[in-house]
Structure formats: C-alpha cells, structure tokens
C-alpha cells in the first residue's frame, strides 16, 4: 500500500459503515490521520479501534452534520487534535422520502434535503476555511449519486438533493480554485453497503439481482471500489481535477 497520505489529515462524514468506513480504512492504510464523524459513537469507536489495530491513526467525533454547529465542531476538533486539515469526504446521505412527489409532505422533503444536501453545504462552509488556513491547498470529495445526474421516479426528493450536491460541488470548485483547493463529486451507482441491504425488503436476493441488472456491468459496486476513487481524488495524483462529477456506476449513466 502506498504512503501518499502520510502527514495529511482527512475528515470523513458518515464514516462508520459502507463507503465512509471503507474510505477511512483505505486512507489510514496509506498514512492519513483520519477524523471520522457520524451519529453512532459505538460504531465510530469500533472503526477507530480497527484502524489503530492495523497501525493507522484515527479519531472519532460524534456529530449530526445536518446541524451546522455540529458540522463546524467536527472541523474544529480535527484541527485541534492534528493541527491542520488537508481534505474531506462528505459522504453522509440516504434516500428516505420515497414515493410519488405529490405524496411527499413538507417535513419529509426538508429532512431529505437536510441529510443529503444541507449537510454537504455545512461541511464545505467550515472545511474550506480550515483548508485555506493549512496553506497547502487540499481536496474535498462530495458523495452524489446517479440520482444527481438523472431523474429517478419515486425518489424526487433524493434526486433533487443529489442534483444540488453536484451544483454545489461545481460552485465550490470555482470559488476555491485559486487557493489550490479541489472539490469534486462522485456519481455513485448501487453499492453493497449495510444501508443498501437494510432497504432490500422481504426478498433481499431478488432485490440484489434486480439492482445488479440495472448496471450494464451486471453487478453493484463494493464499498472498497468507491473508496479507491475517493482516495485518488483526495490525493495529489488528481491535482488537475476539480469541479468534476465522476461516475462510478457500472455504466448506468452511459445509457
């Protein structure tokens, strides 16, 4: 494993399972000091323990990043503990307001936007000044979705939020380019995470086959595959990539 993140401090939200956890473990293995943020302390402590047992460095901050003060506190603690911030992976998100848009009530709509879009806004708002203060540029990756690149029937609120993430990413990239800060988005297809499996319903194997069939490659991704792309975008190897929405979707958006 490379050491391309040695000396770098990376913040990850939604870090206790799935893509967030895989990315935290990948970055720590490559030398990063990782700051993990999520709502569940027990799960966070478990991930930190695993990283430390493997020889890496990690710390956990319990936070609900849909609340601005808590999103800001994660950044503050990262800088307080490690002296700087070099990157972030804004990974929190889930589809919660399902069904036809005419049946979505205002509370469910606002909660969907808070989880999938406002959390990214709060992250960027407080991460960017910390990256500027560190003085060596840096990178931010926001987790969008194929739902941010196309319409999704029955998922109007989620699709609207993820479209927003891509627009927010591009605007932030333009505002920070001269500071050497890069901001990109992942356009993820189906990923085999605990959250995905918890939403499969009474016939999980049938649901997995149906999800796989939606992808031209005939399967959904593993979290480690998404982590590999996130790590690349956070690394200096991606130094000329900013404002991009990169598909990691098994060909879904190519259709």
From TrEMBL:
**NCBIfam families named among the record's database cross-references:** PRK07231.1
Q: Which CDD domains match?
A: SDR_c
Q: Which PANTHER family match?
A: DEHYDROGENASES, SHORT CHAIN (PTHR24321), ESTRADIOL 17-BETA-DEHYDROGENASE 8-RELATED (PTHR24321:SF8)
Task: List each copy of the Ketoreductase domain by range.
Answer: 8-197
Superkingdom of the source? Answer: Bacteria
What SMART domains is this protein classified in? PKS_KR (SM00822)
- Class of enzymatic activity (EC top level): oxidoreductase
Give the keywords, sorted: NAD, Oxidoreductase
Question: To which species is this protein native?
Answer: Nonomuraea salmonea
> Which Pfam families does the entry mention?
adh_short_C2 (PF13561)
> Mind telling me which InterPro entries this protein's record contains?
KR_dom (IPR057326), NAD(P)-bd_dom_sf (IPR036291), Sc_DH/Rdtase_CS (IPR020904), SDR_fam (IPR002347)
State the similarity comment: Belongs to the short-chain dehydrogenases/reductases (SDR) family.
Does Oxidoreductase count among this protein's keywords? yes
Give any GO molecular function from the UniProt entry: oxidoreductase activity
Protein name, per record: SDR family NAD(P)-dependent oxidoreductase
Task: Tell me its EC number(s), please.
Answer: 1.1.1.-
């Amino acid at each position: 494993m490379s050491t391309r993140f040695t000396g770098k401090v990376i913040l990850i939200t939604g870090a206790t399972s799935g893509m967030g956890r895989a990315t935290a473990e990948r970055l720590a293995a490559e030398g990063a000091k990782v700051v993990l943020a999520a709502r569940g302390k027990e799960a966070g402590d478990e991930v930190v323990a695993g990283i430390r047992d493997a020889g890496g460095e990690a710390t956990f901050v319990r936070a609900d990043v849909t609340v601005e003060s808590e999103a800001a506190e994660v950044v503050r603690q990262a800088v307080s503990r490690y002296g700087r911030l070099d990157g972030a992976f804004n990974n929190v998100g889930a589809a919660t307001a399902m069904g036809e848009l005419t049946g979505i009530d205002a509370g469910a709509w606002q909660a969907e936007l808070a989880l999938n879009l406002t959390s990214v806004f709060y992250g960027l708002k407080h991460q960017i000044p910390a990256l500027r203060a560190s003085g060596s540029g840096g990178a931010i990756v926001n987790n969008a979705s194929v739902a941010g690149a196309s319409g999704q029937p029955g998922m109007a609120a989620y699709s609207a939020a993820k479209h927003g993430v891509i627009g927010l990413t591009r605007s932030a990239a333009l505002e920070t380019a001269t500071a050497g800060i890069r901001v990109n988005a992942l356009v993820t297809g189906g990923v085999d995470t605990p959250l995905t499996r918890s939403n499969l319903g009474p016939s999980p194997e049938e649901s997995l086959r149906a999800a796989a069939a939606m992808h031209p490659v005939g399967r959904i991704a593993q979290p480690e595959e998404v982590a590999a792309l996130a790590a690349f975008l956070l690394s200096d190897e991606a130094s000329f990539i900013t404002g991009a929405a990169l598909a990691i979707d098994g060909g879904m958006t190519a259709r």
